[in-house]
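From the methods appendix. Each design record in this collection lists the tokenized structure first, followed by the designed amino acid sequence. Records were kept in a plain field format so they could be parsed without special tools. The example shown here is representative of the layout used throughout.

RECORD:
FOLD TOKENS (375 positions):
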């Protein structure tokens, strides 16, 4: 139980986002924001933080208003939720594989199990998630049942996915992360968009919040032409400022080798590769670096070129887009408008959102509202 929750936030669980302005917060859900106001009025970010604090979870806010447990372990959040279920004497039926939902016009009667048995109840909530990370149980069965019940379902597709890069050198940086990097996207060498945020180099290319949040647009732009990326690993410096900073370092470390001094400015694991791309000998002494070499280094550090190969698929997606049409849900209760005792929550809803804690907050909010309405 909770296998997908344990994967969130790279195993640390980015449980919500502490953006204080509710309008700005809800704007992250795009056109769905107008549906969500009533649900968030009933259970919002503060309610989520209060709930977990009450159940022994201390949290910390990181850049981008991302909220994590201070333990940096998703297991902390799962333990708090399991303890809450036990305290409420909730019966958990693990291993009970659902094969379908039984209902008549306007009312659901039971859930069918694979062993032929039926589980009857007064109310039913569907929280089967999307189709990402199928190994955790998110196989998309919920969408099959929803269609069978007559609900309109927008076909789910991978969203917030890592990007595979064609250049082999990227793999040499696997595991390196940059808290503040600027990524520029180009189609056939024409600039389309620039954004700043956290990235992570992987064995196949790029991931991290900045890349995940741009992945949908990258996928769309690939239909128009070759998509290339230009990575600025020092966005806090302009070209002239970086040039001056390098001069300062070279003067201070004039008798040191360049490869040993550049680590003062960029991650050491990127030093030799950066020098190679700028065509500068790593063993050169700082006092011997020419003006032309220094300028090449400035340009190189501000624009690491990459070519997008492809977006990874459902198995690597953080979330999926698509789901039940929002016009078929009453967001004051999360009740289906087709069935009086059927409630829809979380990833089964057709709501796009960025990374940064917005997915889990959607689950906490809609789950709480549905739970209260079910009782």
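DESIGN:
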């Amino acid at each position: 139980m909770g296998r997908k929750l344990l994967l969130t936030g790279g195993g640390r669980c980015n449980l919500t986002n502490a953006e204080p302005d509710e309008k700005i917060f809800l704007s992250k859900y795009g056109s769905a924001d107008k549906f969500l106001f009533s649900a968030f009025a009933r259970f919002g970010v503060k309610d989520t933080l209060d709930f977990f604090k009450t159940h022994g979870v201390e949290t910390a806010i990181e850049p981008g208003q991302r909220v994590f447990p201070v333990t940096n372990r998703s297991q902390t959040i799962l333990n708090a939720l399991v303890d809450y279920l036990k305290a409420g004497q909730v019966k958990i039926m693990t291993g009970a594989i659902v094969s379908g939902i039984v209902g008549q016009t306007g009312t659901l009667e039971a859930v069918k199990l694979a062993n032929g048995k039926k589980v009857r109840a007064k109310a039913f909530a569907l929280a089967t998630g999307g189709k990402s990370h199928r190994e955790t149980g998110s196989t998309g069965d919920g969408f099959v049942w929803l269609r069978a019940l007559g609900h309109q379902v927008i076909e789910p597709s991978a969203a917030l996915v890592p990007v595979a890069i064609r250049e082999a050198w990227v793999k040499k940086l696997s595991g390196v992360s940059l808290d503040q990097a600027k990524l520029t996207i180009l189609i056939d060498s024409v600039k389309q968009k620039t954004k700043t945020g956290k990235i992570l180099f992987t064995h196949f290319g790029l991931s991290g919040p900045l890349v995940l949040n741009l992945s949908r647009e990258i996928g769309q732009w690939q239909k128009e032409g070759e998509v290339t990326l230009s990575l600025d690993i020092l966005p806090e410096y302009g070209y002239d400022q970086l040039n001056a900073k390098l001069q300062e370092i070279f003067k201070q470390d004039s008798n040191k080798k360049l490869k040993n001094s550049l680590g003062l400015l960029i991650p050491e694991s990127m030093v030799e590769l950066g020098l190679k791309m700028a065509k500068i000998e790593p063993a050169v002494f700082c006092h011997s670096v020419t003006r032309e070499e220094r300028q090449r280094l400035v340009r190189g550090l501000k624009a690491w070129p990459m070519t997008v190969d492809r977006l990874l698929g459902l198995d690597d997606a953080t979330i999926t887009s698509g789901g039940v049409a929002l016009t078929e849900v009453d967001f004051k209760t999360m009740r289906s408008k087709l069935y009086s005792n059927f409630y829809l929550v979380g990833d089964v809803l057709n709501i796009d959102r960025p990374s940064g804690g917005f997915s889990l907050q959607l689950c906490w909010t809609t789950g709480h509202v549905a739970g209260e309405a079910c009782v």
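APPENDIX NOTE: The chain has two domains: 3-158+317-374, 162-312.
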